[in-house]
Amino acid sequence: MNRFRLIPWVLAGLGPGALTIPALASVESAAGSPEACVTAPDAQAWQDRVAQGLLPRVMFSGETAPAPVQARMAAHRVPAFSVAVIRAGTLDWSAAWGRQQADGAAATCRSLFQAGSLAKPATVLAAWRMQQAGAINLDADVDAYLTPWKLPAGRQDAEHPVTLRRLFAHTAGITPGGYEGYPRNAVLPTDLQTAQGLPPSNARKAEVLAVPGTTLRYSGPGYTVAEIALQQHLKRPFESLMRTWLTGPVGMRHADFSQPAPREGEEHVARGHQGDGQPVPGGWHAHPEQAAAGLWATPADLAALLIELRKGWLGTSTVFAQASVHDLLARPFEEHAYGFRLIGDGEQVFLTHYGGTVGYRAGMTLNLRSGDGAVFMANADSGMDLGMEFFAAVSDTYGWSSFGPTRVERAATPPADVLQSLAGRYGFEDGPVVEVVPEAGVLTLVFPNGDRYPLSPIKGLPRAFIHADTGVRASFDGEGEATTIQLYGDTGRRVR
Known about the structure:
Helix content is about 25%, strand content about 20%. The protein is an alpha+beta fold. It starts with a helix and ends with a strand.
C-alpha cells in the first residue's frame, strides 16, 4: 500500500484569485551582470510548444485541448511560475511567467521559491559527498554524532540502529509527517526544540516508533535528527555545510538554506499565496527544519543539481563520485531511493521528487539514461496541478513515456441506483479506508485526509472511473457486500 503513503507527500492545492501575467523577463545575477533565462540555440521551438501546450492530467476525447501556460496560471490562480527543462544532460531552456506577487515585480529566472521537500534529496547528496570524503559514516549509529542529546529509546536496538542512511531513506522508523513552518514574525525553535517537540516548536517530537530498517515511513523529523547530527559532528551551521558540500561545488548559484529569508535578499523572493488567492501573511513561512524543508532555490539551481547527479552516475562528475551515486540508487525501498521516487521502467526510469510548503509547490524529475528532465516552482498552494500540466506538456513534446496525459473517452453517467450500489467504505490490507459517496449524480472518492475526488465514468472497463485532475483511476467489481474497488493497483473490500 505504499502508494497511499505517498498521498501526504504532496500537499494539495486549494484554489485562489485572478492574475495578470507578463511576459518572460531577464534578471540580474548576484554580481549585477545580466542573467537571462536560457534557451539553447535549437530549443526555441520546443519551448514554444510547451509554453503554448500545457496539458491536463486527463484528456477526454473531443473535450479537452492544450492551453497556453498563462491561461493555465490564471485558471489555477498561480501568480508566478518558473521552470527549467533538461535535454540530454544539459539545460535546454528556462523560463518564468507572472509576478512575484499579484501587485509586485515581474517574476524572473532569478526569482527564488521555497522548494519544500526538495531540500531532502539535496541534503542526501551533500551527505553522500561527506561520506565520499570520509567526513561521516552513513552506517554508524547516529547517536555517535549526537552530543549531548541522544535519540530517546524506542524500537531501535543494537541489531537495528538508527543510522544516517536509514534517516535519509525514511526507513529509520522515526515519527512520520512533515512541517507546517512558522510565520516570519514568530520566534523560531532551535533544531533540538524541534526534535524534542518543545515550545516554540509546533512539530511532533522525533521518536523511533518502528523497528529501523523494516518499513518506509516518510519522516521530516528524521531529517531533523540528521541535521542535528551533521551540525554537531562537523561543528558548523547547516546552511554553511550545504554551501560547502553541495550548492557551491554544484554551481547552484542562488540556492540557499538560510532561514527565515535567503541571503540574496527579499526582493528576489516570489511571495507565497494561500488557497484563497491571498498572499501568505509576511510573504512566506520560515522553515528552521532546513534539511527537511528549508531550501530556497530557482529551477535552474535544481536543474544544475540533477545534471551533476547524472554526470556522477555516468562517472564524469568532478563533484559526485560514480560509486557514491550508484550506492545512492542501488537500494530502492518500495520504489524509493533516499529522497527520490523511481517512476517508469526500462530505459525510461525517472528520479522524481515533489515539495510543498505553505504558499509554494515544486517538482523535479530526471531520466538518468537519456539525461532528460524538468523542474517547476510555483508560488501558490494550487501550483502542483499547474506543475503536473507542465510535466505532461514536456513529456508530450519531448517524447517521454512518463508524465504524459491520460487519454480516455468519457462514458455515460451510470443510473443513480448503480452509483448507489457502489457507495460505501472500502478497506485495504495494512492500509487506509476510503469512502465512495454518490452526490449530485457524481461518484466521489473520499480519502482519510479529507481529500475529495469527483470521478468521471470512462469507457473501457465496466464501472470504471477517473479523477480528471490527478488521473487516479477507480474501478469496481462484484455485487452487494462482495463489491471491491481497484485503486492504485490494490484491491479494497467493503467494510462496515
